[in-house]
Design a protein that fits this description.
The complex is a heterodimer of chains A (256) and B (249).
Chain A lengths: L5 E2 L1 H4 L3 H18 L2 H18 E2 L2 H23 E4 L6 E4 L5 E4 L1 H27 L2 H10 L4 H30 L6 H31 L18 H23 L1
Chain B lengths: L2 H18 L3 H5 L8 H28 L2 H18 L2 E2 L5 E2 L4 H8 L1 H19 L7 H25 L4 H27 L6 H38 L9 H5 L1
Antiparallel strand pairs in B: 1-2
Helix pairs in contact in B: 3-6, 3-7, 4-6, 5-6, 5-7, 5-8, 6-7, 7-8, 8-9
The chains are: A mainly alpha (256), B mainly alpha (249).
Amino acid sequence: MINSVYVSEYIKNINPNIKAVFALSVILSCIIFKEPLGCIFAMSVMWVIIIKNCRLSKHLICHIVLWPILFIALSSFMVSFDIANYRGEVFSLKIINNYFLTVNAQGIKKAIRLFFTSAASLSTMYFLSFTTPVNDIVYVFKTIKCPKEITELFMLIYRFIFIVLNMAQSITTAQNCRMAQRTFKTRINAMALMLSSVFVLSYNKSLFMYNAMLSRCYSGEIYFLNQKYVSSRKFVILAVFIVFTVVLISVLERIY
Amino acid sequence: MTKKEKKVFLLTAVLCLLFAVPQKAQAMHIMEGYLPPKDCILWFVLCIPFIIAGFMSLKKITTQNKKALIILAMAGAFTFVLSSLKIPSVTGSSSHPTGMGFGSVIFGPWVMSIIGVIVLVFQSLLLAHGGITTLGANTFSMAVAGPFVSYGVYKLCRKLNAGKFISVALSAGIGDLFTYCVTSFQLSLAYPSQNGGVIMSMIKFLGIFAVTQIPLAIIEGIITALALSAIEKISDIDFDGKCVISREA
């Protein structure tokens, strides 16, 4: 899980607003220009920052990089295909009557641009996910004046996810021990029973939790303590430089 | 096309299917960076009325009853976990349910729109499913269109005196299919066909998704119906007609 990765104190303590603005600026620069070289630069920088500041196992890197990248590659590949009533420049396959499944040079270009844009944006999202714990995201929500109810709900959902996930995993393990995965029918039944049990258990747990909160003077408002953050000038300069370079490379690539 | 080209095409198509089948959760979500800026803005704007209405509903519920916030949080966590669980698939691979049909029948579509946004933010931050720039588009398909259609189908079926099992199965299945139709429309709007425009592009995306989504929608419908029937059997929760939160409130 992304949230259980060790992150260096330096990057963890940087103001989450700065990290969020930086990540969003890089993503926007990539999707506005959609230039492969600019995206490759953004992607490389993000992974250098992630690997330098987070302790990631090879298995985790493979898991979080390989599948999304494969998915992006295949999704981009889909975009290169077109249905037309004429033959394509690169490839064409007759479907019905005069209609062909075609691939043109322009479609391939579009797919390549899309692949790099999406991969760079995803890498930037990983930067934000790895370096900014969910508690710090709440700080960003507070800064943008997000309604209190949503912030509270966001934080509570995050805390409950692990409780519900543990319940689901325990029930699934117990079902697997009892040969629940034997046939397709038993798999469907086991899944449905597990969902119903998890729902009822989590519903009851929420009522117990409410009683526990009530006994601790819960009045309908939840207070979250804010951590002290550092507005590192060095990081701000680096962030501005990275965004500027991504834009510059993209503009130069577009011109030439 | 030569024989060699045909072979290459077939191999690529098979590879596409192999990789696309186990990635249903991601197929439903539009990845970060996939949409052009104008589309991101358009879908964000279209979501705003639903999110505002969902927020008003949430505020009303939480003002009336302090307990509701805790139950809603648990509902959100349940929806997140539900969407990250693997469901059995006929192709032998595993896929993930959307959980929106389940949620909209139990909690109502308005509340689900706001829970859906939060769940989508978590999915993008913790699982890299979806993204921040594509949050508007994903919210519209998964937290607005899907739950509302599911709820509408459920209510319609109940009005037509259909059984609870059938109503829930149809609502979850049709809601799931509608979600993927909206996703296809969003993708085709962003990447229209050079020859046939948005419609031709939509046919292409629908055709690609149909291979995995139709069987999965059927399976999700059956699982949702079985799960809700079991909930009624093992607890005193009656989801017919009223959402659990309103009942608690």
